[in-house]
């Protein structure tokens, strides 16, 4: 350790000498100096053990560890989600956890301040990915892909308060499904809504509703209400908070903080508090102000077509046209949607607003073109499943009903009632592993039989194979059912077949 202190002094002396040189000399050795600065900082952080300050061992704010029990629940959710994506013909894709900073800049509107920037590494300015959509658009443009149906499961990072709602973190997992390519209107969009319904129904979270709107309708609404075009994005961001805030609070934000005229805010209020089915779409076609706007009419026309397709898919009763739905991200260009769980009667008394958003998405036809040198566009539509939110709900339900979770998938335990049978147990378990059977044993030479059986009961292992002196003499193995405690003798050569038969029947 004394040598470290000496090195520390030498490095800073060297740095000080370089700083006192003429500017040209400093520039010539810039790269070398940079590495020395990094070394100096590292060395300065290395202290003798006795000087080490006390600190609390914890995960960083907005992150968490997942226990084996939680991982079982999480993997079941992800398996259901991914199997649905594959059922609809999606290919898997992965992208780096961080991107060039400029790739992410100006893609998320007011939320851009939540992007995690990384320290300059290797001459590149980098940021952790904020979502999976922008990296997908970058991938399409970079590889000149014009058509693709893909799914992606991965972590994203957002520098926001993790305590806003349950299931919201700074590091979290997203499950995305996207369809890229030029197709006839609303067919891919309707499939995305169908996928959301399949996943939410399969997870059995309770009743849900998918709100839909169109950014062209919103922009048209802003225009006819008198919102200056320069304020479209920022007002859209305020409207997007209506699921979490009352109209009164949203109106106050638009007027007091964003400088919108009160009468304009009131006109917006007449629209954003409307929601319904296809009849509301028809009603908006007849609206004296909205029907005069070309953008709004295009959006209404597509929504009418969307309702026709979701009716054919048998999910129309789950879809609601909601003029308050904005989806504040800047890259959306057309249809947007968001799935919310509906509160039970008991929850409704405590929570007047919805239980929470569990899936969302929309159309983003201009995003790929932002990365293409020639500006060539690839129309895209997609959805994202809120895994963390869903996980919190499922976990809470399991606690409420006291469900016990198996943390392993072990099917068979290899045991012995006598000493000096480790070699026989090892030969037997190797035979089971080679046959593709999930098996375990205790890592002791001479474990007690009762200890082995208790382990099986605690871990929920269904079958035990027992080998001892008598079994060796007779050329058999005892097969025991943990639940019923019934035992049968099976010929050694027939053991694997018998176990596979029982497992297939269970």
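Sequence proposed for the structure above (506 residues):
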């Amino acid at each position: 350790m004394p040598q470290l202190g000496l090195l520390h002094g030498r490095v800073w002396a060297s740095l000080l000498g370089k700083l006192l040189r003429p500017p040209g000399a400093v520039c010539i050795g810039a790269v070398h100096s940079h590495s020395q600065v990094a070394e100096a900082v590292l060395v300065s952080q290395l202290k003798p053990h006795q000087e080490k300050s006390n600190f609390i061992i914890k995960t960083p704010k907005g992150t968490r560890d997942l226990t084996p029990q939680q991982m079982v629940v999480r993997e079941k959710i992800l398996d259901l989600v991914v199997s649905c994506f594959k059922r609809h013909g999606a290919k898997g894709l992965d992208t780096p956890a961080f991107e060039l900073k400029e790739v992410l800049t100006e893609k998320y509107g007011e939320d851009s301040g939540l992007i995690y920037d990384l320290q300059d590494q290797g001459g590149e300015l980098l940021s952790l990915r904020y979502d999976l959509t922008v990296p997908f658009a970058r991938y399409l443009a970079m590889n000149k892909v014009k058509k693709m149906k893909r799914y992606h499961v991965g972590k994203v990072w957002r520098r926001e308060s993790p305590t806003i709602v349950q299931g919201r973190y700074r590091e979290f997992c997203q499950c995305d499904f996207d369809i890229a390519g030029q197709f006839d209107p609303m067919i891919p969009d309707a499939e995305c809504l169908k996928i959301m319904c399949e996943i939410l129904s399969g997870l059995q979270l309770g009743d849900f509703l998918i709100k839909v709107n169109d950014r062209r309708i919103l922009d048209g609404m802003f225009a006819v209400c008198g919102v200056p075009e320069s304020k479209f994005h920022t007002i859209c961001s305020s409207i997007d908070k209506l699921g979490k805030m009352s109209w009164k609070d949203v109106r106050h934000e638009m007027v007091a903080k964003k400088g919108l005229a009160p009468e304009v805010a009131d006109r917006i209020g007449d629209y954003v508090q409307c929601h319904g089915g296809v009849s509301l779409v028809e009603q908006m076609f007849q609206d004296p102000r909205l029907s005069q706007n070309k953008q709004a009419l295009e959006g209404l026309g597509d929504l009418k077509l969307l309702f026709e397709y979701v009716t054919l898919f048998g999910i129309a009763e789950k879809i609601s046209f909601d003029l308050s739905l904005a989806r504040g991200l800047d890259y959306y260009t057309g249809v947007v949607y968001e799935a919310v769980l509906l509160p039970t009667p008991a929850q409704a008394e405590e929570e007047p607003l919805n239980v929470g958003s569990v899936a969302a998405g929309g159309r983003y036809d201009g995003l790929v073109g932002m990365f293409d040198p020639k500006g060539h566009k690839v129309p895209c539509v997609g959805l994202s499943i809120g895994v963390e939110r869903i996980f919190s709900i499922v976990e809470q339900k399991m606690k409420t009903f006291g469900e016990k979770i198996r943390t392993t998938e072990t099917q068979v335990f290899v045991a012995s009632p006598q000493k000096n049978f480790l070699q026989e147990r090892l030969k037997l378990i190797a035979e089971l592993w080679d046959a593709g059977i999930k098996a375990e044993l205790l890592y002791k030479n001479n474990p007690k039989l009762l200890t082995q059986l208790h382990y099986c009961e605690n871990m929920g292992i269904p079958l035990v194979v027992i080998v001892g002196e008598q079994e060796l003499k007779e050329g058999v193995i005892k097969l025991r059912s943990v639940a019923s405690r019934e035992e049968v003798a099976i010929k050694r050569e027939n053991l694997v077949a018998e176990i596979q038969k029982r497992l297939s029947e269970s």
